[in-house]
Design a protein that fits this description.
Radius of gyration: 29 Å
Helix content: under 10%
Strand content: over 45%
Distance between the termini: 31 Å
Largest sheet: 11 strands, antiparallel
Number of strands: 15
Structural class: mainly beta
Shape: elongated
Order of helices and strands: EEEEEEEEEEEEEEE
């Protein structure tokens, strides 16, 4: 396995303005190798040599390689340390998808306003901090098995039922079968989230109050979906479904000390609502959650 990353950064301040730019590339590759064998007839349990086996029952092995390449950039702009704007973008390419669906682009944008730094609030000493913020971002997921987009074949002996019978003597010949149903249309699973929040600090930041409202929509889940029996396969990887989550998060934190005794009191409240906006193909009703297939 190897990971190679390179980044370049540029920062500049001119008057009340400041700019910070970051760009980079990343390449990751992982190769897994496996070989195993088993048999019987060792003259001693202390022997660790396959050649000492009187009967070799089976020998298997495989090698798998996957890779991930990325380009990314971030721009942060600040004015008078009161207004902050940050934009990022990632372009990720995964070997787990077929050419044409291999690359995904995931942008994000955030803005913040430090209201406490405005002149109309500077004389309010009991307000230590007040910041309003909003953000939008997209993220991708590519965690599926390797080579799900193309056909894969498995060989096996009589015990695996992968062979064929020929002739009047019904001679069994070892063969191979397609191990799973491929899907050349597989693509990145995506999540899109919007967040609006306020940070409030009181009493020299001893009392901190944070509140957020969020909306998150996830779609094209990469899941193994049950297939009809007539296909000859029990399941196949598909992009299916869409779910929307939204709600509020509220947190209150109070920190103080009495001489050398420090204490902290924290309370939080979270609400969440889930809405299924799209089901697996062929489903238009839900009898129970397990029937969703995702």
């Amino acid at each position: 396995e190897y990971l190679w990353e390179n980044t370049v950064n540029y920062s500049k301040t001119f008057g009340a303005h400041s700019v910070d730019i970051l760009g980079g590339v990343s390449i990751q590759e992982n190769t897994a190798r496996n070989m195993s064998a088993y048999g019987e007839g060792l003259s001693s349990d202390g022997l660790r040599n396959l050649g000492s086996l009187q009967t070799m029952r089976d020998i298997t092995g495989y090698q798998q390689t996957w890779s991930l390449a990325s380009q990314f950039a971030r721009l942060t702009y600040k004015f008078a340390e009161r207004y902050i704007l940050t934009g990022t973008v990632r372009r990720d390419g995964s070997s787990r998808f077929m050419r044409g669906n291999r690359w995904g682009i995931f942008p994000s944008l955030s803005a913040a306003w430090r209201v406490k730094e405005e002149g109309f609030l500077r004389d309010f000493d009991f307000i230590s901090n007040l910041k309003m913020r909003a953000s939008y971002g997209e993220a991708g997921n590519q965690n599926i098995g390797l080579f799900q987009y193309q056909s894969s074949y498995t060989t096996g002996k009589r015990t695996s039922n992968y062979g064929y019978v020929f002739g009047q003597n019904k001679t069994y010949i070892d063969g191979m079968v397609q191990s799973y149903l491929p899907n050349a249309n597989l693509k990145w699973e995506t999540s899109k989230q919007t967040d609006i929040g306020v940070d409030l600090g009181l009493l020299d930041n001893k009392l901190m109050i944070t509140t957020d409202y969020y909306i998150k929509k996830s779609s094209d889940f990469l899941l193994n979906i049950q297939m009809p029996a007539q296909t000859g396969y029990t399941s196949a990887t598909r992009n299916v479904g869409s779910v929307k989550n939204y709600g509020f998060e509220f947190n209150v934190d109070y920190r103080n000390n009495i001489k050398n005794f420090k204490y902290n009191i924290n309370a939080n409240l979270t609400t969440i609502k889930n809405k299924i906006e799209e089901l697996s193909p062929g489903k238009n009703a839900v009898a129970n959650l397990q029937s969703l297939d995702f």
